[in-house]
Amino acid sequence: MSKMTTPIRLEPRFSKRFAFVLMVIHGGALLLLLPLTLPIAVELILTIKLCLGLLVLASALHTSRQHLLLNNHPLHGCILRYEETLDCLRVQLKSGQETPIASGSYSHPQWAVLKLEGISNALIIFSDALDVQTFRRLRVHLQYANDPPQNN
Fold first, then answer.
1. What is the domain range of residue 53?
2. Is 87 within the bounds of a domain?
3. What is the DSSP string of 129-150?
4. Mean pLDDT by 10-residue block, N- to C-terminus, for the chain (152 residues)?
5. Is the same domain home to 61 and 84?
């Protein structure tokens, strides 16, 4: 495998696929509240369903702001680069801090999840959020980070 010396700047756009997935998940959760039956008084059931519905809507709002719109996301605009001396992948944040990629990062033909050591927020990137070439390079970098070549 050739050395990956060209850094990748990750500035994902709005992803229609990710928005659709979030709508299906949260919409499905709201629909499942309708047939929910509990062995308690009717007034209490409606109150519980309303509270659960509000929690689902709050989750949808938080997830959309944090992962879909990337409002104040610490990994938005980061630069992914290969460190030849350490033979590892590192990410430079906009703040200038550098950190290695965590082992929980994941790459799939349709999306990628970028996790960093010491940072709790992951960056979820669907393929329509980046141009084709950048997304392909990101996937190659993540596959290399998760399965580096073995030296014999």
1. 16-68
2. yes
3. GS-HHHHHHHHHHHHHHHSPPP
4. 71 94 97 88 88 97 91 86 77 87 88 89 92 92 70 54
5. no
